[in-house]
Design brief:
AMP-binding_CS; seven-stranded mixed β-sheet; alpha/beta; ACAS_N; ligase; AMP-bd_C_sf; ATP-binding
Length: 631
């Protein structure tokens, strides 16, 4: 635990006007349960999950729900709101308004383009009619191969409105990587674009689109984003069951074909209303911008802004173009109230010497959301000092698995540097040791002990459910084990230490890689780092640290000693690596996660061709460098 004082504390006005406070009053009126603060509200929500989710349904006025909320409370297998029908798009339609745009499309080197609510719904209605004319209906799959543009949102909403299932990849994926995902689904329609601009360069994707079409023999039609300009009449929706598939997202796919993770309409609507309105305090007067791509679950999460009537921002350009502070410039220009980015972007801004609060008018900015990896205390404090003391830092952690977060910020709870403020409502989060005993103040496995409606309804092509069970329920039967190391602090916040399947275990002491990265990557000479721990045949343990140097830096003896000192002083002497090795880069999944486990397997003797699927890696050539080093 950091031991630091909070860097941000909600004011009395923050607490009084927060949507979660209003919800607590609704809970008291509806159920008679009077809660005194966020912690007691959370405790009720996990002690009485059926009552919590039913009350949430009523609070957001989602319509008739029936008396039965939870058919059983086992995992996997929980059945939520049996017999209820709805459609995700209904919640979007009810927010139509004329005083604010639904979407603002930001393009590199071009004017911002506003899409009104009427235009959004009209263009969605026209494409929905197009889908119906092609015979697309309930259960059919529509695939997207698109940048983060309004047409991607329109295509998704039209697909969902007719009861079909949406699945997408960003155009940073090659045709083969996209086929590894979309090819599993036998889609009937492909929605795509000719290319996109990034960092001042145009990327023509016509060849990849043609390869994708050839690899998808079930397609009835390919539709270009540039064709989605017509507007139709009233947008109508097909009512579907609570668990009817809404979309299919994918695991990273680093160890084989990516798993298709299927989420239902009802679970996503409930989870996203909770996460966006109650946890993030986003509403009708907000502009919500998360820098993301259709390949990443945060794209799906950002669309949830439409569920509460907020304006969302689509941007497929570079976060560093024309300058390292490009996202802050967009946030200032659009008067963004909630901005989402990554720890890597924050660190890059810090190293570039950016001071956003001086260079941009960020008075409208209320919250900076962070996800993708752990945010170091130093970066959190940098945001306070260089973006604004008034800005809440809402670091979140969850995953594609639930297309949301388990832990994050809430408007009524303080922010401690390097810590996630609280578990989300309805998320029965705990930290367990290997024997399944809860632990506090020390590292444990992140587990969820009760079901949530947004847990996957199933994996695609997993008829017997074996892949689903093995992904989450093998270690602790009946309990979701997520695969992260966490510490729950004495004030109820959570520290995330990294993936438990890449745990460093030196002399029987478990350590998280994130703690090492936080200390090393702050050094100006280090662009990025990767640490692994390998058991040796003689019973020894080898823990190398690979460092990618910043431009102009050299790995001198002095730098090696400063790296070791930083780790020794800021983490512990046990975390100091056995060796520091200069590397040309760190390989990542397409969503930016470091490939710790595959590299560890490679150094343990695994075949480089079998440890990872190259199309799932951002720079596959780096794998060859590590393989050559192993040899």
């Amino acid at each position: 635990m950091t031991g630091a004082a909070p860097q941000w504390v909600p004011t009395d006005e923050d607490v009084a006007t927060a949507r979660v406070t209003d919800f607590a009053r609704f809970v008291a009126d509806r159920t008679g349960v009077a809660t005194t603060d966020y912690q007691s509200l959370w405790q009720w929500s996990v002690d009485e999950p059926a009552a919590f989710w039913a009350t949430l349904w009523d609070y957001f006025e989602l319509g008739q729900r029936g008396e039965k909320v939870l058919e059983n409370d086992t995992m996997p297998g929980a059945q939520w709101f049996p017999g209820v029908t709805l459609n995700y798009v209904d919640r979007v339609i009810r927010n139509a308004r004329t005083d604010r745009p639904a979407i603002i499309h930001v393009v590199e080197d071009g004017p911002d383009i506003e899409v009104s609510w009427a235009e959004l719904l009209g263009r969605t209605a026209a494409f929905a009619e197009k889908l119906r004319s092609l015979g697309v209906g309930v259960g059919d799959r529509v695939a997207g191969y698109l940048p983060n543009i309004p047409e991607a949102v329109i295509a998704f909403l039209a697909t969902a409105s007719v009861g079909a299932i949406w699945s997408a990849c960003g155009q940073d994926y090659s045709a083969k990587a996209a086929l590894d995902r979309l090819g599993q689904l036998e889609p009937v329609v492909l929605v795509t674009a000719a290319g996109y601009d990034f960092g001042g360069k145009h990327y023509d994707k016509n060849e990849d689109v043609e390869a994708l079409r050839e690899g998808l023999p079930t397609l009835k039609e390919t539709v270009l984003a540039s064709e989605l300009t017509a507007t139709g009449g009233e947008l109508t929706t097909v009512p579907v069951g609570f668990d009817h598939p809404l979309w299919i997202l994918y695991s990273s796919g680093t160890t084989g074909k990516p798993k298709g993770i299927v989420h239902g309409h009802g679970g996503v609507v409930l989870e996203h209303l909770k996460a966006v309105a109650l946890q993030s305090d986003i509403g009708q007067n907000d502009t919500f911008f998360w820098y993301t791509s259709p390949s990443w679950m945060m794209w799906n999460f950002q669309i949830a802004g439409l569920l509460v009537g907020a304006t969302i921002v689509c941007y497929s350009g570079s976060p560093n173009s024309p300058a390292p502070d490009a996202l802050w410039d967009i946030a200032a220009r659009l008067r963004v109230t909630v901005l989402g980015t990554s720890p890597g972007y924050v660190l890059g801004c810090a190293k570039a010497g950016a001071v956003p609060r001086k260079e941009h008018d960020l008075a409208a900015l209320r919250t900076v959301g962070i996800t993708g990896s752990s945010l170091p205390p130093s970066s959190s404090l940098w945001l306070r000092d260089n973006v604004g003391e008034h800005v809440q830092v809402a670091s979140i952690s969850g995953g594609t698995d639930v297309v949301s977060a388990f832990i994050g910020g809430v408007r009524t709870v303080p922010v401690w540097p390097g810590e996630l403020s609280a578990p989300f409502l309805g998320c029965a989060l705990d930290a367990w040791d290997e024997s399944g005993n809860p632990v506090r103040g020390e590292v444990g496995e992140l587990v969820i002990t009760k079901p949530m409606p947004s847990m996957p309804i199933y994996f695609w092509n997993d008829d017997d459910g074996s892949r689903y069970r093995s992904a989450y329920f093998e270690m602790f039967p009946g309990v979701w084990r997520h695969g992260d190391w966490i510490t729950i602090t004495e004030h109820g916040s959570v520290i995330v230490h990294g993936r438990s399947d890449s745990t460093l275990n030196r002399h029987g002491i478990r350590m998280g890689s994130a703690d090492i990265y936080q200390s090393v990557e702050r050094l100006p000479e280090i662009a990025e780092a990767l640490v692994i721990g390998c058991e040796q045949e003689d019973g020894g343990y080898w823990m190398p640290l690979f460092v990618v140097l910043a431009d102009g830096a050299e790995l001198t003896d002095d730098l090696r000693e400063r790296i070791k000192k930083a780790i020794r002083d800021e983490v512990s002497p046990r975390h100091v690596p056995d060796e520091i090795i200069e590397a040309p880069g760190v390989p990542h999944t397409r969503t930016g996660k470091k490939l710790e486990v595959p590299i560890k397997k490679l150094f343990a003797g695994a075949d480089a061709a079998k440890i990872v699927e190259r199309t799932a890696v951002d720079d596959p050539d780096l794998l060859d460098w590590y393989a050559n080093l192993k040899r």
